[in-house]
Amino acid sequence: MKAVLDPDCVLAHGLAAIRSQYQVPPAFPQPVLEAAEIAARRIPGEHVDRTDIPFVTLDPASATDLDQALAIEASGNDLLLRYAIADVAWFVTDGDPIDAEAWRRGTTLYLPDGKASLYPPILSEGAASLLPDGPRPAVIFTVRVAPDGAVKLEEAERALVRSRAKLAYETVVDSELPPQFAELARRIALAEAARGASRVDPPEQEVARRADGGYALAFRARHPSEDQNAALSLAANLAIAEVLQAHHTGLFRVMAEPDAAAVARLRNSARAFGIAWPEALPLERFRDGLDAADPHQAALMLAIRRAGQGASYAPWSADAAPWHAAVAAPYVHATAPLRRLADRYVIRATLAVMNGRPVPDAVSDAFARLPKVMGRADALSGQIDRAVIDLAEAVILDGREGETFAAVVTDVDMRGARMQLSDLPVVTRIDAPGAAPGTALQVKLVDADPAKRALQFEAVGDGA
Q1: What is the pLDDT of residues 100-121, one digit of tens each?
Q2: Which helix (DSSP H) or strand (DSSP E) does residue 38 occupy?
Q3: Which residues form the RNB domain (predicted)?
Q4: From its phi and psi, is residue 204 left (phi > 0), alpha (psi between -120 and 50) or beta?
Q5: Residue 304 dihedral angles phi and psi, to the nearest 5°
Q6: How far is 85 from 159, CA to CA, in rounded Å?
């Protein structure tokens, strides 16, 4: 997802500099494009016909790289989620030019002014995308969801599917979705609560024009259908993780809980925003009560999302059980193969074990190599996101030099004090000798430099 939305294109010059600095690929090499054109004409030959199932897709209105299509039906007291995932592996052969380029990229990179896709558009936005303009090859995962939200993968098969509609978060109405859509999402949320899961999905930041002609960082409210749709993906990824772990194979997404220092910083951020956080209330319970419709709470949700020790990938190992703290369960990435390299191999492994076949050697070998490749891609994506946020913060504060802001020091390290502005979702550093975490400050903006993506503040008094 893009870290910041920029509907008025006020970040254009700075974004061009970010693309250059981080060497965001501007296009695909010609051999990759030529191979993709040939692959796009490949006729499915190992897929059963499931075009009678009434699949629909649900994504942002502008999206054309559609990884997932959904259909839901009742089965006694259970619900059956049929989750069709783009069959990227049908178009990409191990070692071909498309595959080699995907290994170089690792993920799709998102910026406010566009993306650098993992695969050429003729595939990612055409032949492999689950668009509603004809049959598409897919892998259908059939997931049984019990009344308490427990999930079980019952089947995985290659199939031809036909999406009935390209639905959008912004405009979808309940009558366009399967009748059980909201109930399935509710069950998954119920199971999350029972496990003590702590996923946080903050709204996206957006550069918005103010009445005085300047700009501000605002938050775009999340649509309820976004969170419900995320629950479907979670259900599939949890069910797949359980199967792969039982078969001693797979590539897992793992993450540790935020450490004590991170929680202390978050408590100081809450204080900066004027949000009460009782000392005895643990983070996992506190964040469940945050409201994304409140700008200050939305900003704190964003801080919580960034406060973890970082998710990474790990192949199955007999020496360490895979665990994802935010999900509170073993977890994989399998539902976005058009955007993440790792998903293509997790899907291939799942198809194998669910159909009584050995996992291909090429997939097992990939599991050993992917953590480094995906880690590098995730790090690059994070650096770009941070640069975009720094740029947006500098742009919105440009011209406000001399103004005074309330702030709270969130933590102090060898680089000085880090502070959270109380009225803006801005975290930056300041030279404030002697300031301890939790110190309230009044700070003056000395300089906002969009070209350098930098802010400079000085303390002007006690903010208490």
Answers
A1: 999 999 999 999 899 999 999 9
A2: helix 30-40
A3: 47-356
A4: beta
A5: -65, -40
A6: 10
- Say which DSSP state 185 is in: H
Give the HSE-up count for residue 226: Cα atoms under 13 Å, Cβ half-sphere.
Answer: 15
Query: Which has the minimum average pLDDT: 266-280, 287-301, 315-329, 360-374?
Result: 287-301
Q: Which amino acid is at 108?
A: T
DSSP for 124-178, written as a single string: IIIITS--SSS-EEEEEEEEEE-TT--EEEEEEEEEEE-EEEEEETTT--GGGS-
C-beta of residue 115 within 8 angstroms of C-beta of residue 125? no
Calpha distance 332→371 (Å, rounded): 13
With contact defined as beta carbons under 8 Å apart, do 252 and 314 qualify?
A: yes
Distances in Å between the alpha carbon of 59 and those of 41, 45, 65?
A: 26, 28, 9
For 284, the enclosing helix (H) or strand (E) is helix 283-288
Q: How far is CA 396 from CA 61, 203, 221, 287, 454, in A?
A: 27, 19, 20, 28, 12
pLDDT at position 380 over 60: yes
Are the C-beta atoms of 330 and 358 separated by less than 8 Å?
no
**Rg for the chain, CA atoms, rounded:** 23
How far CA 281 is from CA of 136, 189, 201, 228, 294, in Å, comes to 49, 21, 20, 27, 20
Given a contact cutoff of 8 angstroms between Cβ atoms, the answer to whether 417 and 376 are in contact is no
In the numeric block, the tokens 């693309």 are attached to 19
- The residues pairing with 254 across neighbouring beta strands, listed in sequence order, are 312
Q: Which domains does the chain have, with CATH numbers?
A: 4-256+310-397 (no CATH), 404-462 (2.40.50.140)
Tokens 């797949």 sit on residue? 240
Token readout for 405 is 């802001």
Residue 170's CB is within 10 A of a number of other CB atoms, namely: 11
